[in-house]
Amino acid sequence: MALNNRYDFVLLFDVKDGNPNGDPDAGNLPRVDAETGRGLVTDVSLKRKVRNFVGLTKGEQPPFEVYVKEKAILNNQNKRAYIGIGKSELLEGDDKKRKGGDAVDEARQWMCKNFYDVRTFGAVMSTGINCGQVRGPVQLTFARSIDPIVTQEHSITRMAVATEAEAEKQSGDNRTMGRKFTVPYGLYATHGFVSAHLANQTGFSGEDLELLWQSLVNMFEHDRSAARGEMATRGLYVFKHESELGNAPAYSLFERIQPRLKDGIVIPRSFEDYQVTVNEANMPSGVQLLRKVG
Question: Helices (DSSP H) in 85-231: which residue ranges?
Fold first, then answer.
């Protein structure tokens, strides 16, 4: 089922006593806007969680395979497209040249058809074996916390060592020290966009859209780890436009979702410390608000 509507959405999620997105350039500390102190979570991190949920629920079977995944060799994925369209002979020859020739468009279509994340988020697939590039219809912004966060550092111990050499260096027991970083509490908001025009180019369908909403609602429930503490989707507000081009600017719709601290709360430590105001009055003509969560 082709998409005939543009969608814009607001996703609210929170973290408690966990690290929602570590920064490898800062020793894996939670990402923070240095000027405002507000926490950040990258779009890449959120897309990873969507990919993981799709892989979990759809069993990595076409048309819901995942292109970008742990330990994937992308050129091997690209090679499958030429085998699938019956033109594997185009892969022969000089390894230094991008392979594909005149069949790149056909290979790109095969990749979109078989890989959910390619037809959803897009991909650059010209890293040797050339399947072209896809501009995805679904895009996300960085998530930003509603209020400044505090990063806490905790000392932790391990009652074992990895090697005999380490054991010989220890005096007494085998206890070793480490560090763990957490955010006591943070409520984050991210904005998302679904382009009907790009969806029809990649084959992103109504079924794919419903899977996206399902992923955004449930992705944290299946991404548990000691490092991430407690994370949960707290709100998913979808603005559906009647037309493909849209009936109102996205920013004016996003402004209708306003999470704020309740009166008297200075330091938030739970979602109950916030009040989410949703302005549904005088909605622009041709725009409908769908509350998936919240």
Answer: 104-114, 116-121, 164-169, 196-202, 206-218
Q: DSSP readout, 68-98?
A: S-TT--HHHHHHHHHHHTT-GGGG-S-TTSP
In this structure, the number of other CB atoms found within 10 A of the CB of residue 12 comes to 23
| Nearest C-alpha neighbor of 101 from the set 75, 133, 132, 80 | 132
Q: For position 90, what pLDDT does the model report?
A: 79
Q: What is the CA radius of gyration of the chain?
A: 23
Mean of pLDDT values over 51-72: 94
Helix (H, G, I), strand (E, B) or coil at 237: strand
Q: What angle do CA 55, 61, 66 make, to 5 degrees?
A: 45
Backbone angles phi, psi at 89, to 5 degrees: -65, -20
* Gap between the terminal Cα atoms of the chain: 27
d(C-alpha 250, C-alpha 177), whole Å: 48
Q: Which of 140, 124, 117, 135 is nearest to 43 (CA)?
A: 140
CA distance 79 to 147: 47
Choose among 200, 248, 203: nearest CA to 7. Answer: 248
> pLDDT tens across 170-198, in order?
666 667 777 899 999 999 999 999 999 99
* Integer Cα distance of 210 and 256 in angstroms: 23
